[in-house]
């Protein structure tokens, strides 16, 4: 077993409802001592408080890189304002500590999804723009960390993003299912079209997806997993990556956002429910947590 795999498997599994002492990291000041019971709690392994909730950050994107969990957020405390300064945090999953962070460029307003491209490169999606970022430079605070960008137009939105090892996968989060689309884009576009605006016709393929999409991740077998949520429901689904057909569906906590697999096969995610912007929702669960897919029901 590799060092990074052991690091994840050595963490104690925390299932069911949890007290504040059972969750790693800094508990947001406005939350009580207990977390609510959530759907599929028996599949949840690790829990970490999402970073900087008290500062108004709303967690969105999730990815795993080099054994660490990365979370992208935007800052807003107003339910009517869905944009704000964006920040990426790097979390040590063993301790729950934030071990690094960097701010996205001023043009970033939502930072809805992230994906690790390998070789130290991070992909951050911001609805109408994709950023390719050199992680070493970014966490060192260097100004030239963004190495390439792609702009999106038409039906293409980067509400969420992932990387299947060959292509960029983006999708739009829509309340109207008739407008919700997913697209596969060649990774080479960052080299050939840096700074350009892409049209839907430049996608290698696309298909329709359900409404309220929030996150996506490809498992080690190429299976596509996606999350869907709002203030009333949360859902994790496995889709056919060729057609978008739903193959399996599992109830989740409301406000579930992006997802990412680690090298042990666990699925990491975060909920925005209980952030200051969404503090009036019926459930508060601003937690980064991992899921054992084998225990889902």
TrEMBL record:
The keyword Signal applies. Residues 1-20 form the signal peptide. Keywords: Signal. It comes from the Bacteria. InterPro entries: Quino_amine_DH_bsu, WD40/YVTN_repeat-like_dom_sf. This is SMP-30/Gluconolactonase/LRE-like region domain-containing protein. It comes from Noviherbaspirillum suwonense. The lineage of its organism: Bacteria, Pseudomonadati, Pseudomonadota, Betaproteobacteria, Burkholderiales.
């Amino acid at each position: 077993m590799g060092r990074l795999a052991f690091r994840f498997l050595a963490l104690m599994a925390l299932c069911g409802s949890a007290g504040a002492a059972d969750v790693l990291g800094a508990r947001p000041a406005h939350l009580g001592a207990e977390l609510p019971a959530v759907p599929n709690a028996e599949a949840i392994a690790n829990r970490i408080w999402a970073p900087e909730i008290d500062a108004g950050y709303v967690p969105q994107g999730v990815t795993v890189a080099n054994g660490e969990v990365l979370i992208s957020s935007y800052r807003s405390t107003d339910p009517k304002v869905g944009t704000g300064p964006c920040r990426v945090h790097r979390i040590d999953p063993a301790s729950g500590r934030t071990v690094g962070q960097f701010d996205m460029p001023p043009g970033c307003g939502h930072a809805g999804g992230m994906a690790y491209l390998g070789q130290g490169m991070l992909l951050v999606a911001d609805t109408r723009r994709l950023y390719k970022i050199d992680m070493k430079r970014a966490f060192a605070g260097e100004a030239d960390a963004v190495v390439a960008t792609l702009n999106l137009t038409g039906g293409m939105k980067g509400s969420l993003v992932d990387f299947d090892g060959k292509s960029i996968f983006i999708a739009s989060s829509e309340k109207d299912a008739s407008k919700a689309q997913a697209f596969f884009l060649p990774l080479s576009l960052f080299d050939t079209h840096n700074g350009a605006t892409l049209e839907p016709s430049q996608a290698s393929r696309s298909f329709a997806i359900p409404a309220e999409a929030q996150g996506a991740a490809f498992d080690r077998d190429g299976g596509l997993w996606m999350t869907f949520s709002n203030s009333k429901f949360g859902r994790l689904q496995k889709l056919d990556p060729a057609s978008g057909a739903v193959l399996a569906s599992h109830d989740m906590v409301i406000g579930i956002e992006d997802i990412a697999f680690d090298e042990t096969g666990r699925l990491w995610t975060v909920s925005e429910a209980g952030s200051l912007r969404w503090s009036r929702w019926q459930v508060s669960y601003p937690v980064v947590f991992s899921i054992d897919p084998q225990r889902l029901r």
